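Troubleshooting: if your tokenizer reports a length mismatch, compare your output against this known-good record of 182 residues.
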Amino acid sequence: MNTRLRKPALAPPPIVVAQPWGEQPALQVERYFRRVYAERMAGLPFLNPALDVAVMDFQRVDGDWLGIVVTPWCLQLMLVPGGGTLWEDIPAGERRLVGLPAGPIEFIADAGESDLPAFQYCPLIAPVTAIADMAAARAAAEDAMTVLMTAPAPRPMPEPENPAQPPLASRRLFLRGRLGSN
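Known-good structure output:
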């Protein structure tokens, strides 16, 4: 289930077809976010000084790569193309729903840069000022991945309160005040 949600106000750049990653992208993703931290984010007031950049190992999901990135400014789910069925090339800034076992999750496209090509992300926690330390951030990331990769349990149908009484025949009877009368 891949459904586009909305388009950004400004015209997005043209779609660039992403090349699938054959190997685990965690190391390259970590290098990219460490560079972003050093060049663009360092010293900003909303950063959590107790956190560093860390990438939870990516795993293959329907042929594509799914992982979680911890940074001093956010904790986010990340989708990287692997040649599978989750990935869809969309313009940078556009949002779409990606079907995961827990249900559809909204991702935002990022065009990437030379050291990390196109990826899509879903912010899970931002800002991360309430996270105490890296151990807590890693635990939150692991819990999030477990929840996202687990299908919800089916809910049992509720039993009728009085099985001897048949359900109302129609809304019309209800509106006319003939509740439960035959």
